[in-house]
Design goal:
The chain has 600 residues and is an alpha/beta fold. The protein is built from 18 helices and eight strands. It folds into three domains: 163 residues, Substrate Binding Domain Of Dnak, Chain:A, Domain 2 (Up-down Bundle); 99 residues, no CATH class; 291 residues, Rossmann fold (3-Layer(aba) Sandwich), CATH 3.40.50. Strands 1-2-4-3-5-6-7-8 form an eight-stranded mixed beta sheet.
Length: 600
Protein backbone atom coordinates (compact mmCIF):
# COMPACT_ATOMS: atom_id res chain seq x y z
CA UNK A 1 0.00 0.00 0.00
CA UNK A 2 1.38 3.42 -1.01
CA UNK A 3 2.31 5.72 1.83
CA UNK A 4 0.08 8.71 2.44
CA UNK A 5 1.96 11.67 3.84
CA UNK A 6 0.11 13.62 6.52
CA UNK A 7 1.27 17.01 7.81
CA UNK A 8 3.22 17.18 11.02
CA UNK A 9 1.37 18.54 14.02
CA UNK A 10 1.44 22.34 14.11
CA UNK A 11 3.22 23.41 17.27
CA UNK A 12 1.81 25.78 19.91
CA UNK A 13 2.05 29.55 19.84
CA UNK A 14 4.78 31.41 21.62
CA UNK A 15 3.64 32.57 25.04
CA UNK A 16 2.21 36.11 25.11
CA UNK A 17 4.19 38.17 27.59
CA UNK A 18 1.87 41.17 27.14
CA UNK A 19 -1.92 41.00 27.27
CA UNK A 20 -4.63 43.53 26.50
CA UNK A 21 -5.76 43.27 30.13
CA UNK A 22 -2.29 44.21 31.37
CA UNK A 23 -2.00 47.01 28.82
CA UNK A 24 -5.41 48.34 29.89
CA UNK A 25 -4.30 48.34 33.53
CA UNK A 26 -1.10 50.18 32.63
CA UNK A 27 -3.01 52.71 30.55
CA UNK A 28 -5.42 53.26 33.44
CA UNK A 29 -2.58 53.80 35.90
CA UNK A 30 -0.92 56.24 33.51
CA UNK A 31 -4.17 58.17 33.08
CA UNK A 32 -4.56 58.46 36.86
CA UNK A 33 -0.99 59.75 37.24
CA UNK A 34 -1.45 62.16 34.33
CA UNK A 35 -4.66 63.48 35.86
CA UNK A 36 -2.84 64.12 39.15
CA UNK A 37 0.02 65.91 37.41
CA UNK A 38 -2.38 68.11 35.46
CA UNK A 39 -4.25 69.06 38.63
CA UNK A 40 -1.00 70.04 40.33
CA UNK A 41 0.09 71.98 37.27
CA UNK A 42 -3.25 73.81 37.18
CA UNK A 43 -2.66 74.81 40.80
CA UNK A 44 0.88 75.99 40.02
CA UNK A 45 -0.36 78.07 37.09
CA UNK A 46 -3.30 79.43 39.06
CA UNK A 47 -3.69 82.38 41.38
CA UNK A 48 -0.45 84.03 42.47
CA UNK A 49 -1.83 84.98 45.89
CA UNK A 50 0.05 83.65 48.92
CA UNK A 51 0.09 84.23 52.65
CA UNK A 52 3.36 86.12 52.24
CA UNK A 53 4.11 89.68 51.15
CA UNK A 54 6.91 91.63 49.57
CA UNK A 55 10.05 89.83 48.46
CA UNK A 56 8.94 86.52 49.97
CA UNK A 57 5.73 86.61 47.92
CA UNK A 58 7.63 87.35 44.72
CA UNK A 59 9.97 84.45 45.40
CA UNK A 60 7.06 82.09 46.04
CA UNK A 61 5.25 83.13 42.87
CA UNK A 62 8.44 82.74 40.84
CA UNK A 63 9.13 79.31 42.32
CA UNK A 64 5.62 78.13 41.54
CA UNK A 65 5.92 79.35 37.94
CA UNK A 66 9.21 77.45 37.50
CA UNK A 67 7.57 74.37 39.02
CA UNK A 68 4.71 74.61 36.52
CA UNK A 69 7.17 74.73 33.64
CA UNK A 70 8.95 71.62 34.88
CA UNK A 71 5.64 69.83 35.31
CA UNK A 72 4.69 70.71 31.74
CA UNK A 73 7.46 68.48 30.42
CA UNK A 74 6.29 65.62 32.59
CA UNK A 75 2.71 66.19 31.48
CA UNK A 76 3.69 66.10 27.80
CA UNK A 77 5.66 62.90 28.35
CA UNK A 78 2.74 61.27 30.16
CA UNK A 79 0.33 62.33 27.41
CA UNK A 80 2.51 60.50 24.91
CA UNK A 81 2.77 57.43 27.14
CA UNK A 82 -1.02 57.27 27.63
CA UNK A 83 -1.67 57.40 23.88
CA UNK A 84 0.97 54.71 23.29
CA UNK A 85 -0.51 52.45 25.99
CA UNK A 86 -4.02 52.88 24.62
CA UNK A 87 -2.85 52.03 21.09
CA UNK A 88 -0.93 49.03 22.45
CA UNK A 89 -4.05 47.77 24.23
CA UNK A 90 -6.07 47.98 21.01
CA UNK A 91 -3.42 46.11 19.03
CA UNK A 92 -3.16 43.40 21.67
CA UNK A 93 -6.93 42.97 21.76
CA UNK A 94 -7.03 42.44 18.01
CA UNK A 95 -4.07 40.06 18.24
CA UNK A 96 -5.78 38.07 20.97
CA UNK A 97 -8.91 37.71 18.83
CA UNK A 98 -6.77 36.58 15.91
CA UNK A 99 -4.99 34.11 18.15
CA UNK A 100 -8.28 32.58 19.27
CA UNK A 101 -9.25 32.00 15.63
CA UNK A 102 -5.84 30.50 14.82
CA UNK A 103 -5.97 28.24 17.88
CA UNK A 104 -9.39 27.04 16.79
CA UNK A 105 -8.05 26.22 13.31
CA UNK A 106 -5.07 24.46 14.89
CA UNK A 107 -7.38 22.28 17.01
CA UNK A 108 -9.68 21.51 14.07
CA UNK A 109 -6.69 20.61 11.90
CA UNK A 110 -5.32 18.24 14.55
CA UNK A 111 -8.69 16.49 14.82
CA UNK A 112 -8.96 16.13 11.04
CA UNK A 113 -5.43 14.70 10.84
CA UNK A 114 -6.29 12.13 13.50
CA UNK A 115 -9.45 11.16 11.61
CA UNK A 116 -7.48 10.48 8.40
CA UNK A 117 -4.72 8.71 10.34
CA UNK A 118 -7.35 6.37 11.85
CA UNK A 119 -8.87 5.74 8.42
CA UNK A 120 -5.43 4.85 7.02
CA UNK A 121 -4.70 2.53 9.92
CA UNK A 122 -7.89 0.58 9.28
CA UNK A 123 -7.51 0.48 5.49
CA UNK A 124 -6.81 -2.87 3.81
CA UNK A 125 -4.50 -3.73 0.88
CA UNK A 126 -7.40 -3.55 -1.54
CA UNK A 127 -8.65 -0.15 -0.28
CA UNK A 128 -8.69 2.65 -2.87
CA UNK A 129 -6.58 5.33 -1.21
CA UNK A 130 -7.13 8.00 -3.84
CA UNK A 131 -9.75 9.78 -1.77
CA UNK A 132 -7.61 9.67 1.36
CA UNK A 133 -4.64 11.03 -0.61
CA UNK A 134 -6.71 14.00 -1.79
CA UNK A 135 -7.80 14.68 1.82
CA UNK A 136 -4.19 14.40 3.01
CA UNK A 137 -3.09 16.89 0.34
CA UNK A 138 -5.70 19.38 1.52
CA UNK A 139 -4.55 18.86 5.10
CA UNK A 140 -0.94 19.53 4.12
CA UNK A 141 -2.04 22.74 2.41
CA UNK A 142 -4.05 23.81 5.48
CA UNK A 143 -1.08 23.06 7.73
CA UNK A 144 1.26 25.10 5.55
CA UNK A 145 -1.16 28.03 5.51
CA UNK A 146 -1.64 27.80 9.29
CA UNK A 147 2.10 27.75 9.97
CA UNK A 148 2.51 30.85 7.79
CA UNK A 149 -0.42 32.59 9.53
CA UNK A 150 1.02 31.80 12.97
CA UNK A 151 4.41 33.12 11.91
CA UNK A 152 2.83 36.32 10.59
CA UNK A 153 0.84 36.67 13.82
CA UNK A 154 4.00 36.32 15.91
CA UNK A 155 5.68 38.98 13.77
CA UNK A 156 2.78 41.37 14.36
CA UNK A 157 2.80 40.63 18.06
CA UNK A 158 6.53 41.32 18.31
CA UNK A 159 6.07 44.54 16.31
CA UNK A 160 3.32 45.69 18.71
CA UNK A 161 5.63 45.19 21.70
CA UNK A 162 8.57 46.84 19.94
CA UNK A 163 6.51 49.84 18.87
CA UNK A 164 5.20 50.33 22.39
CA UNK A 165 8.67 50.18 23.90
CA UNK A 166 9.93 52.63 21.29
CA UNK A 167 7.08 55.04 22.04
CA UNK A 168 7.85 54.96 25.76
CA UNK A 169 11.57 55.38 25.17
CA UNK A 170 10.83 58.52 23.14
CA UNK A 171 9.57 60.32 26.27
CA UNK A 172 11.44 58.66 29.13
CA UNK A 173 13.96 61.42 29.88
CA UNK A 174 13.58 64.97 31.17
CA UNK A 175 14.93 66.37 27.92
CA UNK A 176 12.52 64.34 25.80
CA UNK A 177 9.64 65.48 27.98
CA UNK A 178 10.62 69.12 27.50
CA UNK A 179 10.96 68.53 23.76
CA UNK A 180 7.49 66.99 23.67
CA UNK A 181 6.12 70.01 25.52
CA UNK A 182 7.62 72.34 22.88
CA UNK A 183 6.59 70.23 19.88
CA UNK A 184 4.71 72.29 17.24
CA UNK A 185 1.90 69.71 16.98
CA UNK A 186 1.22 69.47 20.71
CA UNK A 187 -2.49 69.55 21.50
CA UNK A 188 -4.00 72.57 23.20
CA UNK A 189 -6.68 71.21 25.54
CA UNK A 190 -8.38 74.60 25.94
CA UNK A 191 -10.19 74.47 22.61
CA UNK A 192 -11.05 70.78 23.02
CA UNK A 193 -12.56 71.41 26.44
CA UNK A 194 -14.57 74.32 25.05
CA UNK A 195 -15.97 72.14 22.27
CA UNK A 196 -16.78 69.39 24.77
CA UNK A 197 -18.58 71.71 27.18
CA UNK A 198 -20.63 73.19 24.32
CA UNK A 199 -22.04 69.75 23.48
CA UNK A 200 -22.61 68.34 26.97
CA UNK A 201 -26.37 67.96 27.36
CA UNK A 202 -26.91 66.97 23.72
CA UNK A 203 -25.95 63.25 23.58
CA UNK A 204 -26.40 62.86 19.82
CA UNK A 205 -24.27 65.92 18.99
CA UNK A 206 -21.62 64.88 21.51
CA UNK A 207 -21.41 61.35 20.09
CA UNK A 208 -21.08 62.66 16.54
CA UNK A 209 -18.33 65.10 17.55
CA UNK A 210 -16.42 62.44 19.48
CA UNK A 211 -16.24 60.26 16.37
CA UNK A 212 -14.29 63.02 14.58
CA UNK A 213 -11.49 63.15 17.19
CA UNK A 214 -8.10 61.48 16.96
CA UNK A 215 -6.87 59.06 19.58
CA UNK A 216 -4.56 61.75 20.99
CA UNK A 217 -7.42 64.26 21.26
CA UNK A 218 -9.60 61.75 23.07
CA UNK A 219 -6.87 60.80 25.52
CA UNK A 220 -6.18 64.47 26.14
CA UNK A 221 -9.79 65.00 27.19
CA UNK A 222 -9.81 61.87 29.36
CA UNK A 223 -6.91 63.18 31.46
CA UNK A 224 -7.73 66.90 31.28
CA UNK A 225 -11.35 66.63 32.41
CA UNK A 226 -12.06 63.10 33.63
CA UNK A 227 -14.96 64.13 35.86
CA UNK A 228 -16.71 65.99 33.04
CA UNK A 229 -16.03 63.39 30.36
CA UNK A 230 -16.85 60.40 32.56
CA UNK A 231 -20.36 61.72 33.21
CA UNK A 232 -21.11 63.09 29.74
CA UNK A 233 -24.02 61.30 28.05
CA UNK A 234 -23.06 60.69 24.43
CA UNK A 235 -19.43 59.75 25.14
CA UNK A 236 -18.79 56.04 24.38
CA UNK A 237 -18.85 53.73 27.38
CA UNK A 238 -15.19 52.71 27.08
CA UNK A 239 -14.01 56.34 27.18
CA UNK A 240 -16.30 57.17 30.12
CA UNK A 241 -14.94 54.15 31.94
CA UNK A 242 -11.35 55.25 31.31
CA UNK A 243 -12.08 58.78 32.53
CA UNK A 244 -13.88 57.62 35.67
CA UNK A 245 -11.16 55.13 36.55
CA UNK A 246 -8.56 57.89 36.14
CA UNK A 247 -10.60 60.20 38.38
CA UNK A 248 -11.12 57.44 40.94
CA UNK A 249 -7.41 56.60 40.93
CA UNK A 250 -6.47 60.22 41.52
CA UNK A 251 -8.91 60.52 44.43
CA UNK A 252 -7.67 57.30 46.02
CA UNK A 253 -4.08 58.49 45.74
CA UNK A 254 -4.83 61.90 47.28
CA UNK A 255 -7.07 60.67 50.08
CA UNK A 256 -4.79 57.71 50.75
CA UNK A 257 -1.82 60.04 51.28
CA UNK A 258 -3.85 62.18 53.65
CA UNK A 259 -4.87 59.05 55.55
CA UNK A 260 -1.24 57.95 55.89
CA UNK A 261 -0.31 61.42 57.08
CA UNK A 262 -3.12 61.46 59.66
CA UNK A 263 -4.80 64.44 57.97
CA UNK A 264 -8.16 62.96 56.96
CA UNK A 265 -11.27 64.82 58.06
CA UNK A 266 -14.39 62.85 58.95
CA UNK A 267 -15.97 63.85 55.63
CA UNK A 268 -12.88 62.74 53.71
CA UNK A 269 -12.82 59.43 55.57
CA UNK A 270 -16.39 58.76 54.44
CA UNK A 271 -15.43 59.68 50.86
CA UNK A 272 -12.42 57.38 50.96
CA UNK A 273 -14.55 54.49 52.22
CA UNK A 274 -16.98 54.91 49.30
CA UNK A 275 -14.17 55.30 46.77
CA UNK A 276 -12.53 52.12 48.02
CA UNK A 277 -15.82 50.29 47.75
CA UNK A 278 -15.98 51.18 44.07
CA UNK A 279 -12.30 50.34 43.57
CA UNK A 280 -12.86 46.94 45.19
CA UNK A 281 -15.72 46.29 42.77
CA UNK A 282 -13.49 47.24 39.83
CA UNK A 283 -10.80 44.86 41.09
CA UNK A 284 -13.29 42.05 41.62
CA UNK A 285 -14.29 42.19 37.95
CA UNK A 286 -10.85 42.92 36.52
CA UNK A 287 -10.50 39.52 34.82
CA UNK A 288 -11.82 39.12 31.25
CA UNK A 289 -15.42 38.04 30.88
CA UNK A 290 -15.43 34.22 30.81
CA UNK A 291 -18.11 34.22 28.08
CA UNK A 292 -16.92 37.01 25.77
CA UNK A 293 -13.25 37.46 26.66
CA UNK A 294 -13.86 41.22 26.91
CA UNK A 295 -13.91 43.66 29.79
CA UNK A 296 -16.52 42.79 32.39
CA UNK A 297 -17.25 45.97 34.33
CA UNK A 298 -17.52 49.58 33.16
CA UNK A 299 -17.76 52.66 35.37
CA UNK A 300 -19.88 55.02 33.27
CA UNK A 301 -20.87 57.55 35.91
CA UNK A 302 -19.02 58.75 39.00
CA UNK A 303 -20.08 61.82 41.01
CA UNK A 304 -18.67 61.22 44.49
CA UNK A 305 -19.40 64.74 45.79
CA UNK A 306 -22.94 65.19 44.50
CA UNK A 307 -26.34 64.71 46.15
CA UNK A 308 -25.44 66.11 49.56
CA UNK A 309 -22.47 63.77 49.83
CA UNK A 310 -24.41 60.58 49.02
CA UNK A 311 -22.64 60.45 45.68
CA UNK A 312 -23.78 59.12 42.34
CA UNK A 313 -22.48 56.12 40.44
CA UNK A 314 -23.34 54.22 37.25
CA UNK A 315 -21.73 50.83 36.62
CA UNK A 316 -22.40 48.23 33.94
CA UNK A 317 -21.72 44.52 33.65
CA UNK A 318 -21.04 44.15 29.95
CA UNK A 319 -20.62 46.93 27.40
CA UNK A 320 -24.00 48.49 26.54
CA UNK A 321 -22.54 50.02 23.38
CA UNK A 322 -22.09 46.55 21.87
CA UNK A 323 -24.69 44.42 23.71
CA UNK A 324 -27.87 43.12 22.08
CA UNK A 325 -29.94 43.50 25.26
CA UNK A 326 -29.36 46.30 27.78
CA UNK A 327 -31.22 46.50 31.10
CA UNK A 328 -30.80 49.62 33.25
CA UNK A 329 -31.86 49.29 36.89
CA UNK A 330 -32.87 52.36 38.93
CA UNK A 331 -32.94 51.74 42.71
CA UNK A 332 -35.24 53.63 45.03
CA UNK A 333 -35.46 54.79 48.62
CA UNK A 334 -32.43 53.98 50.82
CA UNK A 335 -30.07 53.87 47.82
CA UNK A 336 -26.96 56.03 47.85
CA UNK A 337 -24.58 56.07 44.92
CA UNK A 338 -21.57 55.47 47.09
CA UNK A 339 -22.82 52.28 48.71
CA UNK A 340 -23.47 50.33 45.47
CA UNK A 341 -26.31 48.56 47.25
CA UNK A 342 -28.11 47.73 44.01
CA UNK A 343 -25.16 46.01 42.35
CA UNK A 344 -26.09 42.50 43.49
CA UNK A 345 -29.39 42.87 41.64
CA UNK A 346 -27.82 43.73 38.29
CA UNK A 347 -25.30 40.93 38.87
CA UNK A 348 -28.13 38.43 39.37
CA UNK A 349 -30.08 39.83 36.43
CA UNK A 350 -27.00 39.66 34.20
CA UNK A 351 -26.57 35.95 34.95
CA UNK A 352 -30.21 35.12 34.23
CA UNK A 353 -30.20 37.15 31.00
CA UNK A 354 -27.03 35.42 29.81
CA UNK A 355 -28.58 32.04 30.64
CA UNK A 356 -31.50 32.84 28.31
CA UNK A 357 -29.03 32.71 25.42
CA UNK A 358 -30.80 35.36 23.35
CA UNK A 359 -27.74 37.47 22.56
CA UNK A 360 -25.09 39.55 24.30
CA UNK A 361 -26.09 41.31 27.50
CA UNK A 362 -25.31 44.39 29.58
CA UNK A 363 -26.96 45.24 32.90
CA UNK A 364 -26.53 48.71 34.39
CA UNK A 365 -26.91 50.06 37.92
CA UNK A 366 -28.00 53.69 37.46
CA UNK A 367 -27.80 55.40 40.83
CA UNK A 368 -27.16 58.93 39.62
CA UNK A 369 -29.93 60.90 41.29
CA UNK A 370 -30.86 62.05 44.77
CA UNK A 371 -33.03 59.18 45.97
CA UNK A 372 -34.75 59.81 49.32
CA UNK A 373 -32.92 57.98 52.09
CA UNK A 374 -34.33 55.80 54.84
CA UNK A 375 -32.56 53.84 57.54
CA UNK A 376 -34.08 50.41 56.93
CA UNK A 377 -36.81 48.44 55.23
CA UNK A 378 -36.34 45.36 57.39
CA UNK A 379 -38.02 46.33 60.65
CA UNK A 380 -41.55 47.64 61.16
CA UNK A 381 -40.32 50.31 63.58
CA UNK A 382 -38.24 51.78 60.77
CA UNK A 383 -41.25 52.13 58.46
CA UNK A 384 -41.69 55.65 59.80
CA UNK A 385 -38.67 56.59 57.70
CA UNK A 386 -40.70 56.05 54.55
CA UNK A 387 -42.44 59.28 55.45
CA UNK A 388 -39.45 61.00 53.88
CA UNK A 389 -40.70 59.95 50.45
CA UNK A 390 -43.22 62.74 50.26
CA UNK A 391 -42.44 64.58 47.06
CA UNK A 392 -42.01 63.85 43.37
CA UNK A 393 -39.30 66.51 43.03
CA UNK A 394 -36.36 64.12 43.21
CA UNK A 395 -38.09 61.67 40.88
CA UNK A 396 -38.83 64.39 38.33
CA UNK A 397 -35.27 65.72 38.31
CA UNK A 398 -33.87 62.20 38.37
CA UNK A 399 -36.15 61.22 35.49
CA UNK A 400 -34.75 64.02 33.33
CA UNK A 401 -31.20 62.87 34.06
CA UNK A 402 -32.18 59.27 33.37
CA UNK A 403 -33.75 60.20 30.03
CA UNK A 404 -30.51 61.92 29.00
CA UNK A 405 -28.55 58.83 30.04
CA UNK A 406 -30.76 56.57 27.92
CA UNK A 407 -30.44 58.96 24.98
CA UNK A 408 -26.67 58.77 25.46
CA UNK A 409 -26.77 54.97 25.23
CA UNK A 410 -28.70 55.25 21.99
CA UNK A 411 -26.20 57.76 20.59
CA UNK A 412 -23.15 55.59 21.30
CA UNK A 413 -24.69 52.23 20.38
CA UNK A 414 -22.67 50.27 17.83
CA UNK A 415 -24.02 47.68 15.44
CA UNK A 416 -27.67 46.64 15.34
CA UNK A 417 -29.91 48.79 17.59
CA UNK A 418 -29.87 47.55 21.16
CA UNK A 419 -33.00 46.35 22.90
CA UNK A 420 -33.16 48.66 25.91
CA UNK A 421 -35.15 48.01 29.07
CA UNK A 422 -35.51 50.49 31.93
CA UNK A 423 -36.25 48.88 35.31
CA UNK A 424 -37.24 51.02 38.28
CA UNK A 425 -37.89 49.80 41.80
CA UNK A 426 -39.84 51.66 44.48
CA UNK A 427 -39.06 55.39 44.24
CA UNK A 428 -36.84 54.40 41.32
CA UNK A 429 -39.99 53.17 39.53
CA UNK A 430 -41.48 56.63 39.90
CA UNK A 431 -38.22 58.09 38.61
CA UNK A 432 -38.25 55.71 35.61
CA UNK A 433 -41.86 56.71 34.90
CA UNK A 434 -40.83 60.37 34.84
CA UNK A 435 -38.00 59.45 32.46
CA UNK A 436 -40.59 57.80 30.20
CA UNK A 437 -42.74 60.92 30.34
CA UNK A 438 -39.63 62.98 29.48
CA UNK A 439 -39.17 60.94 26.30
CA UNK A 440 -36.46 58.44 27.29
CA UNK A 441 -35.76 56.23 24.27
CA UNK A 442 -36.28 52.88 26.02
CA UNK A 443 -38.08 50.02 24.31
CA UNK A 444 -39.78 48.83 27.48
CA UNK A 445 -40.21 49.91 31.07
CA UNK A 446 -40.50 47.65 34.11
CA UNK A 447 -41.98 49.30 37.22
CA UNK A 448 -41.48 47.26 40.41
CA UNK A 449 -43.29 48.07 43.65
CA UNK A 450 -44.14 51.52 42.33
CA UNK A 451 -45.52 54.06 44.84
CA UNK A 452 -46.93 56.07 41.94
CA UNK A 453 -46.56 57.20 38.32
CA UNK A 454 -47.13 60.73 36.99
CA UNK A 455 -49.86 59.81 34.47
CA UNK A 456 -53.15 57.89 34.82
CA UNK A 457 -52.45 55.61 31.84
CA UNK A 458 -49.41 53.99 30.24
CA UNK A 459 -50.29 55.60 26.90
CA UNK A 460 -50.00 59.06 28.43
CA UNK A 461 -46.64 58.09 29.89
CA UNK A 462 -44.75 56.68 26.90
CA UNK A 463 -44.97 55.03 23.49
CA UNK A 464 -42.86 52.15 24.83
CA UNK A 465 -44.21 49.00 26.43
CA UNK A 466 -44.88 49.28 30.17
CA UNK A 467 -44.71 46.25 32.47
CA UNK A 468 -45.59 46.29 36.15
CA UNK A 469 -44.58 44.00 38.99
CA UNK A 470 -46.69 44.59 42.10
CA UNK A 471 -46.93 42.02 44.90
CA UNK A 472 -50.38 41.76 46.45
CA UNK A 473 -48.93 42.33 49.92
CA UNK A 474 -46.45 45.08 49.07
CA UNK A 475 -47.74 48.17 50.92
CA UNK A 476 -45.57 50.60 48.93
CA UNK A 477 -47.19 49.44 45.68
CA UNK A 478 -50.59 50.41 47.16
CA UNK A 479 -49.67 54.06 47.71
CA UNK A 480 -50.64 55.20 44.19
CA UNK A 481 -54.14 56.32 43.29
CA UNK A 482 -56.33 53.45 42.16
CA UNK A 483 -59.86 52.16 41.90
CA UNK A 484 -60.04 51.57 45.67
CA UNK A 485 -58.38 54.77 46.82
CA UNK A 486 -54.72 55.23 47.60
CA UNK A 487 -52.54 57.99 49.02
CA UNK A 488 -51.54 59.45 45.67
CA UNK A 489 -48.67 61.70 46.77
CA UNK A 490 -46.47 60.21 44.04
CA UNK A 491 -49.18 59.71 41.42
CA UNK A 492 -51.20 56.82 40.02
CA UNK A 493 -50.91 53.09 40.71
CA UNK A 494 -49.53 51.55 37.47
CA UNK A 495 -50.71 48.08 38.57
CA UNK A 496 -54.32 49.15 38.03
CA UNK A 497 -56.17 47.49 35.18
CA UNK A 498 -57.26 50.94 34.00
CA UNK A 499 -53.62 52.07 33.70
CA UNK A 500 -53.19 49.82 30.67
CA UNK A 501 -49.78 48.35 31.44
CA UNK A 502 -48.97 44.65 31.38
CA UNK A 503 -48.90 43.40 34.93
CA UNK A 504 -46.71 40.30 35.18
CA UNK A 505 -46.85 37.50 37.72
CA UNK A 506 -44.95 37.88 41.01
CA UNK A 507 -45.26 36.09 44.34
CA UNK A 508 -47.84 37.82 46.59
CA UNK A 509 -45.46 37.77 49.56
CA UNK A 510 -46.01 37.00 53.23
CA UNK A 511 -49.20 38.31 54.85
CA UNK A 512 -47.55 38.87 58.22
CA UNK A 513 -47.26 42.56 59.02
CA UNK A 514 -43.59 42.27 59.98
CA UNK A 515 -42.85 40.93 56.47
CA UNK A 516 -44.66 43.57 54.43
CA UNK A 517 -41.60 45.64 53.61
CA UNK A 518 -39.65 42.47 52.86
CA UNK A 519 -42.28 41.82 50.20
CA UNK A 520 -41.35 45.20 48.75
CA UNK A 521 -37.69 44.24 48.36
CA UNK A 522 -38.20 40.74 46.92
CA UNK A 523 -38.75 41.37 43.22
CA UNK A 524 -35.34 40.13 42.09
CA UNK A 525 -36.01 36.50 42.85
CA UNK A 526 -38.36 33.64 41.97
CA UNK A 527 -40.93 34.03 39.23
CA UNK A 528 -40.65 37.82 39.37
CA UNK A 529 -36.99 37.60 38.30
CA UNK A 530 -37.90 35.07 35.60
CA UNK A 531 -40.44 37.48 34.15
CA UNK A 532 -38.11 40.49 34.35
CA UNK A 533 -35.51 38.42 32.51
CA UNK A 534 -38.01 37.47 29.81
CA UNK A 535 -38.97 41.11 29.29
CA UNK A 536 -35.35 42.28 29.15
CA UNK A 537 -34.36 39.63 26.59
CA UNK A 538 -37.32 39.93 24.24
CA UNK A 539 -39.40 37.10 25.69
CA UNK A 540 -42.99 36.97 26.93
CA UNK A 541 -43.62 37.19 30.69
CA UNK A 542 -46.37 35.35 32.52
CA UNK A 543 -49.22 37.84 32.78
CA UNK A 544 -51.35 38.60 35.84
CA UNK A 545 -54.61 40.55 36.07
CA UNK A 546 -54.42 44.26 36.77
CA UNK A 547 -55.93 45.61 39.96
CA UNK A 548 -59.63 46.52 39.80
CA UNK A 549 -62.43 47.30 42.21
CA UNK A 550 -64.12 43.94 41.76
CA UNK A 551 -63.96 40.64 39.92
CA UNK A 552 -60.71 38.83 39.23
CA UNK A 553 -58.67 41.98 39.78
CA UNK A 554 -60.08 42.72 43.23
CA UNK A 555 -57.43 43.53 45.82
CA UNK A 556 -56.96 44.76 49.36
CA UNK A 557 -56.20 48.45 49.61
CA UNK A 558 -53.53 49.75 51.96
CA UNK A 559 -55.66 50.15 55.08
CA UNK A 560 -57.19 46.69 54.61
CA UNK A 561 -53.76 45.14 54.13
CA UNK A 562 -52.38 46.77 57.28
CA UNK A 563 -55.36 45.76 59.38
CA UNK A 564 -55.62 42.25 57.99
CA UNK A 565 -51.91 41.46 58.14
CA UNK A 566 -51.69 42.76 61.71
CA UNK A 567 -54.53 40.48 62.78
CA UNK A 568 -53.10 37.58 60.80
CA UNK A 569 -49.69 37.88 62.46
CA UNK A 570 -51.15 37.52 65.98
CA UNK A 571 -49.97 34.80 68.32
CA UNK A 572 -46.29 34.50 69.13
CA UNK A 573 -45.23 37.66 67.31
CA UNK A 574 -47.88 39.76 69.11
CA UNK A 575 -46.82 38.25 72.42
CA UNK A 576 -43.15 39.02 71.75
CA UNK A 577 -43.71 42.55 70.57
CA UNK A 578 -46.56 43.60 72.84
CA UNK A 579 -47.04 47.34 73.05
CA UNK A 580 -44.14 47.98 70.66
CA UNK A 581 -46.26 46.54 67.87
CA UNK A 582 -48.96 49.14 68.33
CA UNK A 583 -46.34 51.89 68.40
CA UNK A 584 -44.69 50.58 65.24
CA UNK A 585 -47.97 50.35 63.34
CA UNK A 586 -48.79 53.83 64.60
CA UNK A 587 -45.50 55.16 63.22
CA UNK A 588 -46.17 53.48 59.88
CA UNK A 589 -49.68 54.89 59.71
CA UNK A 590 -48.42 58.38 60.60
CA UNK A 591 -45.85 58.14 57.82
CA UNK A 592 -48.41 57.11 55.24
CA UNK A 593 -50.75 59.91 56.34
CA UNK A 594 -47.82 62.27 56.03
CA UNK A 595 -47.49 61.18 52.42
CA UNK A 596 -51.06 62.22 51.73
CA UNK A 597 -50.62 65.79 52.94
CA UNK A 598 -49.48 68.47 50.51
CA UNK A 599 -45.83 69.43 50.80
CA UNK A 600 -43.92 72.40 49.49
Amino acid sequence: MAAIVLPAEVGPFRRMQSTSQGAAQLAGDLRAVTTDVKEVQAWAQGSSSTDWAGEAQQSAVSARARFAVRLDGGEAALDGAVVAADRFEDRLRRLENERIALERERTDLGEDIETVRSAIAHAGESTDLTGLERIAARLRHRAGTLVADISAWETRYQAAEDDFVTALQAVDTVGEGRAAARAPGRLDPTDLLHQLSQRVGDPAALAAWWRTLTRAQRECLVTEAPHLLGNADGIPVTARDQANRAYLGGRLDYLGRRERDGQLTDAERAELEKDRRLADLVDRYSAPDPDTGGQQLFVIGFRPDDYSGDGGVVVSLGNPDTADHVATYVPGTTSEGGDLSGFDRIDTLHDTMVDEGRGSVATILWDDYDAPSADSFTDVHELADIGGVVSTDDARVGGERLADFVDGLRATDRGAPEDLTLIGHSYGATTAAYAAQDGAAADQYVLLGSPGAPAPTAGQLTHGDVYVGAADYDPVSLLGLGSRGGVGALGYDPAQESFGATRFDVAPGSYRVEDLLHNHTSYFGGRSLDNITDIATGGDPTVDAGRAAGGDGSYQNLSELLAGSTTSSGGEWLFDRGKDLADDIGHFGDSLLHLARPHP
